[in-house]
Amino acid sequence: MGDKNSDLLKWHRDKKVIYPLTIGLFVGVLISIIFLSSDCNPDSQEYDKFLCYLSKNKTLTILYWGLLMAFLTNLLTGKKIRMINIPKYNSKSRIAILIPVSCSEYYESEDLKLMLEGFGEGISDFAFKTNYKLSESYEIVLIDSKNFELALKKVKEEIEFGTKYFISTLSSFSTDLSDEFLKLSDEAILINTISGTTAIKEVKNRIYNFYPTSISEVDAIIDCIESRNLENPFIYNFNSKYTRECRDYFIEKWNEIKSKDKHISKKENSYEFINQSSFDLSHPKFINDKVHNSGVLLIFGYGNSFYDLLDVLKPKVTDINSKYIYTISTFKYRSWKVKEEDTLNGLKTITVRPKMQDSKFYTEKDVVKYFSEQTLDRFLKSLELINAQNLLFDNAWNETSPNRLEYDISGKVKVETIEL
Question: Any idea of the CA torsion for 339, 340, 341, 343, to the nearest 10 degrees?
Answer without folding.
Answer: 90
